[in-house]
Amino acid sequence: MDPAHGQTRAGGKTLRRADRVVILFYLFSLACLSLPSPSSGAAVSNQDCMSCHEEKGLTKPGPGEKEVSLFFDAGTFKKSVHSSLQCVDCHDIKEIPHPDASKIRSCASCHSQSEKTVKDSVHRGKASCKACHGYHAVAPAGNLSGSTCKSCHSSSYSDFKSGVHAKGPGKNEDVASCRDCHGSSHAIPANQDQKSPVYHRNLPATCGRCHSDATLMQKYGIEAADSYSLFMDSIHGRALSNSGSQGDAANCSDCHGSHAIKRTTDSTSRMHKMNIGHTCGKCHDLISSQFTGSVHGRLLKKGNMSAPSCGDCHPAHRIVSVESASWKLGIIRECGTCHESLLETYRHTYHGKITNLGYVRVAKCVDCHGAHNILPASYPASLISPSQRLTTCRQCHPGANANFASMIVHVDYRNRAGQPHLYWTWIFMSVLLASVFGFFGIHAVLGLIRGWIVRTRRHRSKRGDK
User: Fold this and answer.
1) Which of 186, 245, 404, 462 is the most buried (most CB within 10 A)?
2) At CB < 8 A and 24+ separation, what contacts does 226-232 make?
């Protein structure tokens, strides 16, 4: 073999080994380049982000030279509904360190249907996703409480917390939440929208979802177990059903309030006995002013809780037309719950006996005394005062004279001090009646005895003759 040739072969063998080394290095470099690097957006992990943002002292200059914290609580995020996501799923970050103002992806990229629903709601352009759901500690929608609404609706929330719906049997347990009344969180329409659960005509049905549940009412000690059905059958409910689209008849919130709903025993409740006159007066202003000046209204103003208020004569959810026969007859019994002796004496009169048979075309309490403007007889403005009595009687008896109007209506013959002539007349007639019946009763008994004796003697005499 030629030495020169052998050298060449040896040299060729050396070149082939070098080629192998180059090729292996090239392949290794490609493999390294194909691996994710911290400079690639897809490679930025939550751990990379936490290397900086878990520092509690990490801040940046904010508006007005105020330091803004950039600290991220990883523990809170782990409890979030988004805990399975990466930071870069929401934050458009492709490298570390990243620019100060990194772009945040829209929630609609995952929640497109929710975004569409919100655009059709009252919150469109007014509340962001973050405002309700938070930023990193995003809770499931079902866990959001009324306090979420507080940031924008502070006054309504404050009223709600003072009301009965926020005071369940357990501490801070909400009986009804904002969503229960206003509807789905994302699809809340404006109150004036006819699709809204709290639209004027829709509100009774919304309240009725809970207040028609007898078990629920018993659990919370609410006496009106079926207030929805009772209300819809009342004069207010019927007027609301038969009114136009706006529906101006009273609904639940007109009487009970919207957010600060309280028990009727609460002195700050709209339906408390001392406040109900003002509540009804928002619609019935003339009647309210008459009642305030009446004997009943004056007693209430003095704090006399036994005096009747609107709700005593017109039961809250069972208010019927005052023109109905049932009310006209029922109000007589209602007056009698306080004026028992007067009801008894009224029943003794012609008027009372006719109404007791179920007829209403005779005088009743309100026809003589008035309804909301009842005053003592000593007041000149009273319908039964000496100066007004004849006019009152002539409403039914056009030909009545002063002598007719002077008759005693509530005749109490047992009142010796007030009506002595009637009392002694009653005593005389009672004694006379007892004496007559007693005398003739004894006479009849003695006659029966004598007749028995005579018949016995005759029977014996006939037997003796035989």
Assistant:
1) 186
2) 227/316, 227/317, 228/204, 230/317, 230/318, 231/204, 231/317, 232/204
